[in-house]
């Protein structure tokens, strides 16, 4: 069984029933809303959202297109996309890390033996912003991580202005991050993730 098929939390969530035609027969329509792990085929859509969200603010993207494909090939189970009627509107991409704190190498490496999930990027399409989608997606992503037996905590780095957002999502600040990108400095934050056995006893994972 693949890692993705073993995750009941990520079964497609359809928030609208298929429409019926005037004759009473159902027409096949795309689900109104669906959460699923991303695949390398989604990389183009991911990069378009990320590029628009970040370049206008910081002049660069956390992940370039080849890096997106790299992580979606190595660890697709550590990604999550929110699709509305088949169109990607928000996403998170992560990889595994095997040290207490993030270092410069964490920007490009996936450490399969690690137990910390490094969240590289969360981005929302411009048409879907100011609707609370970032918070909802992060909540679902953390629930997803709790169904992975190897995940013990989530790590991320962000600029000062985003600390309140991630604090509301349950992250705590660890202090300045040693990673820098150009002139940008970051705060490192973490969120504990309970293991697979706990979730099986308490939420059916």
UniProtKB/TrEMBL annotation:
Q: What enzyme category does the UniProt record give?
A: transferase
One GO cellular component assignment for this chain's record is: cytoplasm
List, in alphabetical order, the GO biological process terms annotated in this UniProt record.
Answer: circadian rhythm; melatonin biosynthetic process; response to light stimulus
Q: Under which pathway is this protein filed? A: Aromatic compound metabolism; melatonin biosynthesis; melatonin from serotonin: step 1/2
Family annotation (Gene3D superfamilies): 3.40.630.30
Q: Where is the N-acetyltransferase domain?
A: 33-194
Give the location in the cell.
Cytoplasm
InterPro entries, alphabetized:
Acyl_CoA_acyltransferase, GNAT_dom, SNAT-like
Write down the PROSITE patterns for this protein, in alphabetical order: GNAT (PS51186)
Q: Key word Acyltransferase present in the record?
A: yes
Tell me one GO molecular function of this protein.
aralkylamine N-acetyltransferase activity
Give EC number(s), comma-separated. Answer: 2.3.1.87
Kindly state which reaction or reactions the protein catalyses: a 2-arylethylamine + acetyl-CoA = an N-acetyl-2-arylethylamine + CoA + H(+)
What family, per the record?
Belongs to the acetyltransferase family. AANAT subfamily.
Name of the protein this chain belongs to: Serotonin N-acetyltransferase
The organism of origin for this protein: Notiomystis cincta
Query: What gene name does this entry carry?
Result: Aanat
């Amino acid at each position: 069984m693949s890692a993705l098929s073993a995750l009941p939390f990520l079964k497609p969530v359809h928030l609208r029933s298929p429409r019926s035609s005037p004759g009473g027969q159902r027409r096949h329509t795309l689900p109104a809303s669906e959460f699923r792990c991303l695949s390398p085929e989604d990389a183009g859509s991911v990069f378009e959202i990320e590029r628009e969200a970040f370049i206008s603010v910081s002049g660069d993207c956390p992940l370039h297109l080849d890096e997106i494909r790299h992580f979606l090939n190595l660890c697709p189970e550590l990604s999550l996309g929110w699709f509305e009627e088949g169109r990607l509107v928000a996403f998170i991409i992560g990889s595994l890390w095997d040290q207490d704190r993030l270092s410069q190498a964490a920007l490009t490496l996936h450490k399969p033996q690690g137990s910390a999930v490094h969240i590289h990027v969360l981005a929302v399409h411009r048409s879907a912003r100011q609707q609370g989608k970032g918070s909802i997606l992060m909540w679902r992503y953390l629930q997803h991580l709790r169904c992975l037996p190897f995940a013990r905590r989530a790590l991320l780095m962000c600029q000062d202005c985003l600390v309140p957002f991630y604090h509301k999502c349950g992250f705590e600040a660890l202090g300045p991050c040693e990673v820098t990108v150009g002139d940008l400095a970051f705060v490192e934050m973490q969120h504990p993730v309970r293991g697979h056995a706990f979730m099986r006893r308490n939420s059916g994972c």
